[in-house]
Amino acid sequence: MPPSLGTVLRTPRLRLRLLNGADRLDTPVRWVAVSELTDPTPYLEGGELLLTTGVRWTHGAEEARGYVRRLLDRGVAGLGFGLGVAHDQVPPTLADAVAEFGLPLVAVPRETPFIAIGKEVSRLLAKAEYEGLSRAFTAQRQLTRAALRGAEAVVDRLGAELAQGWTLLLAPDGSPRHAHPPQAASRVSELTGEVRRLRGLRQPASASLSAGGEHITVQPLGVAGRVRGFLATGGPHPLDSEERTLVNAAASLLSLELERGDPAASDRLRGGLLAALLTGAVTVTGPGAEPLRAALPEEPVVVVVAEGADAAVSWGRGEEGLALVDGGRFRFLGSARSDPGARLAAFTGGPVGVSEPVGHDALPEALAQAERALGAARRDHAELVRHADLPGGFLGLLGTPAGVGTAQRLLAPLRGHRSGAELLASLRAYLAASGRWDAAAESLGVHRHTLRYRIARIRELLPGDLDDPDYRAELWLALRMTERG
Q: Is the distance from CB of 154 to CB of 253 less than 8 angstroms?
């Protein structure tokens, strides 16, 4: 919510004084505008605290009344008059007009710059926005936690967040499933016609209506165009932006919850969640992630990858975890303590690849490990290969996404330099020539002293010893892998 006029007036350092409009101190101030125009309204949106020094004020009584009427019609929050510039006091014609029409009038002392008032309102707006976001974030987190207890808990939580309002969950046919508070179920008859209209649309859509002096919204619930029910909310006032965000979040959670009643839809949702986790599109770190972490298998977890998707899918239906079929491969996330890889290999006969045990925040890396282990299982005709049993180090990562990532990190000090392209080319030529200056310089088309200068700079940027043969080998492989990528 924007700050009220009363909040702005209560800022001590501004030393503002209210001259008229004590009954309108709760008027929201959405911005501050400064204008000496006879008619500034074409340049206003409404909600502004308009500031003027009256430097051009020569209005008579009728002109003053017209000026004030225009400001009120535009929705101005109040008028601030700067004293001590052109007028030591508010002109009587203006004072009479604001008193007649009830426009809030504020006296601004000479020592208070108009820009100070603008900065204060801007600060209050930013504070209000931050507090609103914090409240919305907390409320959304509580909604997510409620979703773990079912659709009814989501409706109750949303109803508690909507001040002076009610929330109603309807079945696809419009009959009540759950209401908060319970007496809100009596509103169903008022919504019958609107629910019937929404149900007849080719594409699900939400609706807003007025009934019984209340503002009501109705949203269809479901995924991929399937209507599984409706969410209705109502109250004496239209939803503000924070409340709309909460209602939309609740609708999404309820849609997912209602889809759980369809086994095929549930499998798609769980598979979509696993795909998002494995690619890093969804993370389980940071505030608000606790409900998602609670819905995942117990840490540490492993990622299991197998071919022969049909048999693997049949096995996965009886397991605790998340399963996904992607590109003919079966991927599974389960608790390492239950060793799902071994059980899958015994069920299908392999090949199966298993990652190392990791936390929920390392699933993309675990997928790369499981894919590499599956490749080794196929190559060696083995039923089961665990990544932990494969050769470690940089060479063991060669050709995998993790290996490319390692190569990029190894060369990052050079890539980030303003002459990165020259340095990388010089390093490659130097390594390819086994450290022979003349041959390397000739391949680059530069003088050997130029190459010596570049290699000296490379030695300064890289953390390792360029004379170490192992480090040189890693650099060479890193260059080759990034060239291919």
A: yes
